[in-house]
Target: Ribonuclease P protein component
Amino acid sequence: MLPTENRLRRRQDFATAVKRGRRAGRPLLVVHLHRGGEPSGPTVPNSDSRPHVAEGIPSARAGFVVSKAVGPAVVRNLVKRRLRHLVRERLSGLPAGSLIVVRALPAAADAPYLDLEHDLDAALRRLLRAEPTGSAPTGAGR
Model:
């Protein structure tokens, strides 16, 4: 499991990552990344509004979407466990305060662990090298 401070739980956080973040699609999954440092909505000085913030340094947080299109509950839970394990190993490489949502596609149900790992790494590489301003990356830097 992911530590509590690294979990996306609120609907608003999922929506922020999906709507304001960048997206990278792969054959097995789609990754949405909203980099930290950008406001995600109105700030409330209440300590319950941001339980993931420890001593002023927000950690990267992850959430997962595995719909019924992926398969029955046993398959969905297996895919979710695999993705959770993969993301947990990569959270330290994400900018502080980042929100990441990993959405499994139906092909993920039959995919081996290494294929999920390859697609996740490729999506994260693409998102992390992209400009945080939302501009499309150009091919000049290759």
Summary: The first helix runs from residue 11 to 20. The longest strand covers residues 29-34. Residues 39-49, 137-142 have pLDDT under 50 and may be disordered.
